[in-house]
């Protein structure tokens, strides 16, 4: 490979353009999959779903999507998804109640729950082996299919139903007594319900359940209400802190936390007896406790076989890990594991697809078709070029008369998949499929009417969405999870695709189709930890060195507005800027302000927006829909999102619409553009990881410019091996199922 000469900084002249878009691909630091700008980037993808501890104003809050319509109209996509989530949780909680029986808050526990509490005290101390406290897992049962979801026409956007004026007024009065800002009254009433005022008066630390509220603020509120009657070890405080810590961890992708980490965090918050605080939180049902260790039955058998060596055996083993988790994520992981096992066991094995495989367009596509014919669940990995293989699978399945469908994370992904299919209607977005806005609708039993579902962009699946999806598939259906394991993970909690791969819960097909061209070569190297220089005779990859953030913003605007259109032939409207976080001197806010001033100047008369502004709409947490501002009126802000008209109500604009010339890598995941400008200012070095760099660099189809100001931090970030950056239970659940069935 020949290293290209370093490209000169782009200037305004046409002559400069002939050289500024010719450069060398140098090592570029990789913003971590979840650490994109620490608090800003972590919260960004979970837009307002839980208390955002830091940088709450940095988050893109969730909102409802589509066109405004009367209240009597069909449900919006966001409301349909939330309703499906509530229904799933209700079914799982009912199942759990049937197994374990109700637990009265504050009462002493018995049975298995008491064993779990004992485990917290005894397992880690080594007094007794973990198996002594845990029974064999209860047999899993298939959950009933969800209720039918009525298909609907173009999606209207609705503002969510807020709390009643009476409830808000009552909460406002309580907040005033405690010296808290009255702006929290609406969110508190929505979060805590109609009795929010009474709840806060009895337990002021329940204010922590409100997004953006931090422990210090809740402590001040409690002192103002309770006076000397409260302290750092108040059980109400410690229970709320445990829940807040788990909610905060969920913003970073964790579905559970090690009990020792929770105790350490409580100690930092002036709790003098963290162990007792954790036990109380478990007893109150704030969190659930789990053991992650060797199979209990195996341990019991070993003790029975050699009772005299129990102490010696225990001395040579590490104590099993004890995890704490919120019930919503724990139940979703268990339901997902059950559902995946159901798909594996219920489908027709060894279906006759013998003629379809040889007719596929590539050996990898043929291998994928054969794997799907032989099993109900298959994992497929590969880069963007490998998306042709699941497309070939869908075409082959439809030729056999099967109801086959492909679901993508984004509208852009749906467009690219539709171009590869013989019937574009077979490509849908996952959100549209689950809400009923897209796809074949539901059958008489409420299941999605498909025989084969291929989910592309599988790394973007969070555990709750995945659980809803799998619960919605009929018995006998086949599911293919396809994606690039090198990209950033889901915006929501969990690492579904990575856990399925790690657990080897199903056949895995690894694509042998490489991404083409200099960008593909560069990204392939990043995937294995190498930041190579690549030959780019067509100016496909350009490095633009900068000294500081101000210069980074200046060069970025020049590239988008002048250099890339003139030298590459890609217009500004098809060039996307990607940076590490929202804040900072070269974050999305600063870049969007500079790009708007250059590309579409205006007074921002529609809540900061003007007609022609490039924006992104966040209809639901973690889902980014690019669009353009059309107009505004009494109904709200009118957008054009990939040809679909969307009206965002006025009260939702500030929380769900952002300028979109510059995005974070998390927001850009699942989408591609003809040209991409990746901005790496000096203050972004700590936000880089291999997964971040891999994701950002692979978004460009024809051209990649890197505004590089992080020196060697880029190559160091790429060289560091990916770490297990999320704590989850799904892998252990899947592995346990395989042990039981083997």
Notes on the structure:
The chain is α/β, with parallel strands linked by helices and 742 residues long. Helix content is 41%, strand content 13%. The chain has 28 helices and 21 strands. Strands 8-7-9-10-6-11 form a 6-stranded parallel sheet, sandwiched between helices. A hairpin with a 7-residue loop joins strand 14 (614-617) and strand 15 (625-633). The radius of gyration is 26 Å and the shape is globular.
Main sheet attributes: strand count, strand direction, barrel closure: 6 strands, parallel
Number of DSSP E strands? 21
Spatial extent as radius of gyration: 26 Å
Number of helices: 28
Classification by helices and strands: alpha/beta
What is the helix content? 40-55%
Assembly state: single chain
Mean pLDDT: 80
Coarse shape: globular
Within the largest sheet, what's the order of strands?
A: 8-7-9-10-6-11
Q: Give the distance, in angstroms, between the N- and C-terminal Cα atoms.
A: 49 Å
The percent range for strand residues is: 5-15%
Spans of at least 5 consecutive residues whose pLDDT stays below 50 are 1-75, 101-114, 129-160, 294-308, 310-316
């Amino acid at each position: 490979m020949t290293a290209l000469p370093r490209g000169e900084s782009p200037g305004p002249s046409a002559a400069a353009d002939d050289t500024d878009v010719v450069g060398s691909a140098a090592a570029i630091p990789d913003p971590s999959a979840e650490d994109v700008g620490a608090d800003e980037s972590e919260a960004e993808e979970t837009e307002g779903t839980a208390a955002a501890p830091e940088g709450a104003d940095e988050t893109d809050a969730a909102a409802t999507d589509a066109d405004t319509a009367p209240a009597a109209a069909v449900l919006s996509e966001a409301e349909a998804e939330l309703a499906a989530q509530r229904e799933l949780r209700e079914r799982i909680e009912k199942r759990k109640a049937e197994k374990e029986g109700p637990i009265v808050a504050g009462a002493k526990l018995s049975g298995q729950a008491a064993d779990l509490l004992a485990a917290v005290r005894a397992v880690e101390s080594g007094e007794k082996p973990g198996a002594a406290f845990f029974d064999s897992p209860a047999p899993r049962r298939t959950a009933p299919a969800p209720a039918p979801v009525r298909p609907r026409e173009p999606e209207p956007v609705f503002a969510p139903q807020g709390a009643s004026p009476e409830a808000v007024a009552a909460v406002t009065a309580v907040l005033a007594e405690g010296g808290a800002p009255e702006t929290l009254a609406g969110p508190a009433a929505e979060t805590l319900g109609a009795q929010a005022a009474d709840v806060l008066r009895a337990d002021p630390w329940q204010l922590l359940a409100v997004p953006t509220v931090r422990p210090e603020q809740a402590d001040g509120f409690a002192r103002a209400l309770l006076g000397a009657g409260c302290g750092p070890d108040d059980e109400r405080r410690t229970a709320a802190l445990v829940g807040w810590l788990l909610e905060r961890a969920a913003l970073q992708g964790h579905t559970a936390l090690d009990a020792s980490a929770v105790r350490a965090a409580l100690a930092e918050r002036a709790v003098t007896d963290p162990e007792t605080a954790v036990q109380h939180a478990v007893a109150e049902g704030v969190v659930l406790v789990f053991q992650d260790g060797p199979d209990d039955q195996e341990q019991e058998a070993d003790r029975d076989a050699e009772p005299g060596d129990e102490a010696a055996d225990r001395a040579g083993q590490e104590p099993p890990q004890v995890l704490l988790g919120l019930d919503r994520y724990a139940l979703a992981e268990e339901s997902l594991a059950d559902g995946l096992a159901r798909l594996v066991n219920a489908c027709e094995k060894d279906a006759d697809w013998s003629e379809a495989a040889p007719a596929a367009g590539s050996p990898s596509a043929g291998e994928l078709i054969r794997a799907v014919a032989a099993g109900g669940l298959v994992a497929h990995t590969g880069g963007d070029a490998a998306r042709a293989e699941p497309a070939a699978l869908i075409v082959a399945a439809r030729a056999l008369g099967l109801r086959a469908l492909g679901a993508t994370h984004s509208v852009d992904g749906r467009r690219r998949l539709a171009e590869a299919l013989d019937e574009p209607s077979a490509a849908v977005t996952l959100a549209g499929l689950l809400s009923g806005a897209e796809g074949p609708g539901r059958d008489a039993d409420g299941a999605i009417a498909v025989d084969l579902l291929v989910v592309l962009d599988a790394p973007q699946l969070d555990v709750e969405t995945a659980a809803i999806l799998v619960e919605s598939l009929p018995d006998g259906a086949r599911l293919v999870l396809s994606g690039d394991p090198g990209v950033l993970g889901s915006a929501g909690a969990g690492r579904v695709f990575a856990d399925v791969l790690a657990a080897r819960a199903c056949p895995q097909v690894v694509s042998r189709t490489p991404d083409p061209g200099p960008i593909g070569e560069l990204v392939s190297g990043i995937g294995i930890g190498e930041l190579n220089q690549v030959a780019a005779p067509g100016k496909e990859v350009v490095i633009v060195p900068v000294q500081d953030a101000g210069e980074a913003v200046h060069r970025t605007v020049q590239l988008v507005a002048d250099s890339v259109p003139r030298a590459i032939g890609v217009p500004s409207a098809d060039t996307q800027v990607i940076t590490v976080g929202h804040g900072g001197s070269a974050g999305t806010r600063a870049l969007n302000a500079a790009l708007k001033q250059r590309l579409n100047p205006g007074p921002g008369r529609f809540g900061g927006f003007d007609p022609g502004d490039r924006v992104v709409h966040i209809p639901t947490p973690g889902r980014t829909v690019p669009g353009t501002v059309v107009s505004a009126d009494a109904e709200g802000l009118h957008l054009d999102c990939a040809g679909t008209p969307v009206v965002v109500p006025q009260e939702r604009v500030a929380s769900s619409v952002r300028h979109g010339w510059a995005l974070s890598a998390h927001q850009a995941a699942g989408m591609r553009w003809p040209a991409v400008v990746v901005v790496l200012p000096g203050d972004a070095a700590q936000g880089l990881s291999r997964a971040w760099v891999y994701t950002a660099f692979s978004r460009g189809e024809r051209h990649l410019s890197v505004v590089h100001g992080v020196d060697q931090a880029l190559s160091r970030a790429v060289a560091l091996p990916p770490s297990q950056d999320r704590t989850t239970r799904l892998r252990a659940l899947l592995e346990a199922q395989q042990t039981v069935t083997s």
